[in-house]
Write the structure tokens for this entry.
Amino acid sequence: MKSSQAGNTGTNDSPKRFGTLEGVFTPTILTIIGVILFLRLGWVVGNVGFLGALLIIVLAHIATITTSLAMSSMTTNVKIGDGGFYSLISRSLGLEVGGAIGISLFISQALSIALYIVGFSEVWISIFPSHDPRIVSSSVLAIILFFSFISAKVVMKFQYIIMILITAALFSFFLGGGNNYELVLWNSGGNASFWVVFAVFFPAVTGISAGAAMSGELKNPRRNIPLGILLAVGVGFVIYIFTAFWLNIHASPDELINNNLIMKDLAEWEWMIIAGIMGATISSALGSILGAPRVLMALGQDRAIPLSAVWEKRSKNGEPRYALLFTALLVETSILLGDLNSIAPLLTMFFLITYGMINFAVFIEKAIGITSFRPSLKVPKLISLFGGLWCFTIMFLINFGFAIISFVIIAIFYFVQVKRGLDAPWGDIRSAMFNAISEWAAKASSRMPQTARSWKPNLMIPIEDPKEWNCLMGFIKDIVFPKGTLRAFSVITMDEGIKQKTVSIANLFFRKKKGASLDSGQLKKTKLEKELNDLMIPVKKEGIFTASMVIEASGFLDGLHIVTQVMKGMFFPPNLMFLTMSNDRDKDERLEHLIAMSIEEKLGLIVMGFHARAAFGNKKKINLWIRDKSPNQNLATLLSLELYNSWESLRLIRVTSREEDLNNEMKDLERIKEEARLPSGLELVVIIGDFFEILDDPPIADINIFGISGGMGTDNMHRIVDQIKTSCMFAKDSGSEDAQL
């Protein structure tokens, strides 16, 4: 798999130009107090009444407030770089998740610019109906692009002017007033249902992403972002409630529903409302055109998208101009294509997924209790959990179809990122998260009795020389695939110079010996560790859990005894010892000691007799030899089934010395086949004669599996392998296996 190395997300290279007011509060509040306030809040109040509108405002702000708290908590814990939400998610949940969210966030922010500009054009056309709306929209885009291209600083200063216009518009609205009406607490006779009204209102509270967008260019993001965003959300919440109340007591429900410009008609000076509406749409577009290119730039810096080297470039004054030009091109294309209302719900979905992931990231970090999560602003984990669940719930309440589509799109982006093999230089919480899940599962498992029903092959393999095992790893993989585990270890024998070695290590540690290097024993251990790890790679690539270690002991048998006892005390301990017979018969005595030790430790046992010439043949045909009332048929049967998953055919064989027992033996094999639920295509064979004579001309197979009987020593195992002329596997039950379950 090709791997891409992510770079640092501009935390050090970005110019630190903005404070709380200019960089966070202003763009956030101007995006919140926008088109929905001036053109749709009256329609909301008219349809559901004041209490209904109040409930909608509160429910929508729950998502915003919880996300603001979560984001604020995260920014007080990590060094946030460019990209706002993208930076937070990628550094918490990983570059793959962050990249998938970041791409969606960029697209939604870019297309929202087009929506804001189109909203401006609609108001403009209501005043100048002869003007072409697309020309108006393209002209507005050109103007805001011009200011953004010069410098974000210029845009930030310009937003102060827009702030004055919007403040004046609200001042004019509250000074004015129409007829006085009784407060309509709840209106059930509106033109739209509660959740449809909620869906129309919700974009009003998606402005917090604008406040986080300039994260890489803030003087003190850990302070600026929490203070600026929470203050903006609070101010916006109060303004929406008071405006909804004022509209309700100064206009009838019919007027509110049918007149989108009701705030203009109620204002003391109508032109101020018009100026405020235009300013609100322009300010929202400006906030997004500053934020979207910076998300694209951050994606480029982290090598998360194609043409990364282009998107990460900055001008001399710190502007991501190539990213800005591409964003403008995307916006212009959207404007010229026409109707954007049809995709507006999808944009809201992307924002909600982003908000939900921010909440879940904080909940996960809090729940797993990692030491690195030490935010200055602490948020109870239940608040973040509720916020994340609520964001996802809102998605389905607004539009079930678009919610499903948005999750599918995010999933596609995610799997593309995974396939690209991104490699981020920073740490994230994924390993801690899975460790926490594993620890919980291990604790839960340890409290339950281990039964034969939960058996799977968990192998431990003592390896003296890894080079001699290359020919066996494919076969071992077939035994443990797909859900088994493999733990390999080797032993280095300690010599009498252990004291000198300890002194050498101490000298290295305390730097008392300039230029000191590892001694021969340490070099040998390092080399052996690498060889073991390399040996495991083909098995690990199949998604099988593997582990390897090298220990020092006074002898190989002592080391094996230590490792076995240690592993038995671990969570998910091994249940099978895999041993091999050496062609060097002088090693048989050690093999017998190993067999005895595995029996003493109550481990299942596999002894592999590898035939150097036949190897594993075509890895297709398996012969399973089961004698009458064999105490080892359970493990042998289970191992043959594991191999059968990767091989093609399985044959069950029994030998009898008496011809009159032929029918009974065949019936017994049929019973075993049925009770063990062996494959339907299994061949049953009963052979009459002497066992060792039959081995001279056995049924053809690529591997033969036998149980280790009480009298079968290493001499008989060698004899069987030599006589049958195939690789053989000898199995001995531990007592915890049952092939009939």
Remarks:
- Residues 1-5, 8-12, 496-500, 512-516 have pLDDT under 50 and may be disordered.
- The domain at 592-741 is CATH 3.40.50.620 (Rossmann fold).
- Residues 26 and 160 are 8 Å apart (CA to CA).
